Amino acid sequence: xxxxxxxxxxxxxxxxxxxxxxxxxxxxxxxxxxxxxxxxxxxxxxxxxxxxxxxxxxxxxxxxxxxxxxxxxxxxxxxxxxxxxxxxxxxxxxxxxxxxxxxxxxxxxxxxxxxxxxxxxxxxxxxxxxxxxxxxxxxxxxxxxx
Length: 146
Ligand SMILES: CC(C)(COP(=O)(O)OP(=O)(O)OC[C@H]1O[C@@H](n2cnc3c(N)ncnc32)[C@H](O)[C@@H]1OP(=O)(O)O)[C@@H](O)C(=O)NCCC(=O)NCCS
What we know:
By secondary structure, this protein is of the alpha/beta class. It folds into 2 domains: 1-91, Hexapeptide repeat proteins (UDP N-Acetylglucosamine Acyltransferase, domain 1, 3 Solenoid); 94-141, no CATH class. The chain has 3 helices and 9 strands, in the order βββββββββααα. The chain binds coenzyme A.
């Protein structure tokens, strides 16, 4: 994966880095950028993905397919592929995504996830047997932390 946070200056005399890197002796200081790329929790970025400057946000649980070129905001739980990347589907329907978000599971320590997190358990089966928020509900399991 490569993140390209800025473009070279397209309208200037030259696109050479001399116009934004001090080491070439043209500008007095390195020119930096203010707007960070935000990548939320549990994003899977597969091999050879390129994130262009126009993409500043990748939402929680998104999947970026191999070789994708990201050009814009990626919604939570979206599966993105291609150049330019396009959404081929959502991982979950909106109701299930909201229920997952309500658990705030990504804030748990790994040991607290270990009892209920496995590759075979789907979110539908997990949520069918758990309260929707860590720490909420009388049936909370002290062992699992949920
Ligand atoms: C993104 C990904 C997870 C999607 O898997 P999936 O949901 O099973 O998708 P499908 O195989 O059903 O493909 C759906 C469509 O998207 C296309 N597609 C899937 N992945 C693609 C990719 N990376 N780039 C371009 N197109 C892709 C398929 O050709 C198919 O198109 P069609 O509907 O026109 O036939 C998977 O294709 C991928 O890219 N995995 C990355 C694997 C990898 O890099 N592993 C290393 C470990 S990090």
